[in-house]
Amino acid sequence: MKEESHGDRADRNFVELLQGARVAVTGVQVLFAFLLTVPFSPGFTRIDRADQWLYYAALVSAALASIWYIAPTAQHRVLFRQGRKETLVRRSNRYGLAGALALAVSMTTATMFVIDHLFDAALAGVTAGVLALLALWTWFGQPALTRSDQPPDGVAEPSSGGADDPRA
Predict the structure, then answer these.
(1) Where do the structural domains in the chain lie, given as residue ranges?
(2) Model's pTM, two decimal places?
(3) Is the Cβ–Cβ distance between 25 and 66 less than 8 Å?
(4) N or C: which end of the chain has fewer CB within 10 A?
(5) What's the Cα-to-Cα distance from 129 to each of 35, 49, 54, 110, rounded to whole Å?
(6) Where exactly are the transmembrane stretches of this chain (predicted)?
(7) Tell me, what's the pLDDT at 157?
(8) Please, what's the b/e burial string for 80-107 (b: 16 or more CB within 10 A of its CB; e: otherwise)?
(9) What residues contact residue 162 under an 8 Å CB cut-off, 6+ apart?
(10) Mean of the per-residue pLDDT values for the chain?
């Protein structure tokens, strides 16, 4: 197989990052739009102080997720043809991780806000806790374990020295 250049690899990595962000951005936009309409509903004025803070956390974390998921595209426009693709890829990866964390916070607090309104604080807390743990595990914990089991991208696996190994 032909080796790809650093520039080709950076281009491919950036396209892959943007593809992943496209999926998340749609969800963030829908959640953010919903959260922006909530205060204008008739019953919103009757929520207690704890629910106001839950709403605040959900809204602000949705805004942060939007900013972090959109940042790579905006920065790509500003840095277009400046030879900074590898820097942009590394930065975009960090923004994607931050965006995912903010999205997890927003989803968890928004769900807690609604369940607390419909049922009670105990069920809301348990549900939010389960959702937070599930998001943290599936989005961060499990991939971190997989990452620690494998060599970094582009590094050859250790040779077993067997007859079928082309590196032997």
Answers:
(1) 8-146
(2) 0.80
(3) yes
(4) N
(5) 20, 20, 14, 12
(6) 21-41, 53-74, 95-115, 121-140
(7) 47
(8) eeeeebeebbebbbebbebbbbbbbbbb
(9) 168
(10) 85
* pLDDT one-digit tens code per residue, 68-117: 999 988 888 888 888 788 888 889 889 999 999 999 999 999 999 999 99
Tell me if 108 sits within 8 A of 131, measured CB to CB: yes
What spatial distance separates the first Cα and last Cα of the chain, rounded to whole Å?
Answer: 18
Cα dist from 11 to 76, 89, 90, 95, 129, whole Å: 11, 8, 12, 17, 38
Instruction: Categorize the per-residue pLDDT at 1 as very low, low, confident or very high, splitting at 50, 70 and 90.
Output: low
Is the per-residue pLDDT at 163 higher than 90? no
Q: Do residues 25 and 67 lie in contact, with contact meaning Cβ atoms separated by under 8 Å?
A: no
Write out pLDDT tens, residues 140-161. Answer: 999 999 988 877 665 544 444 4
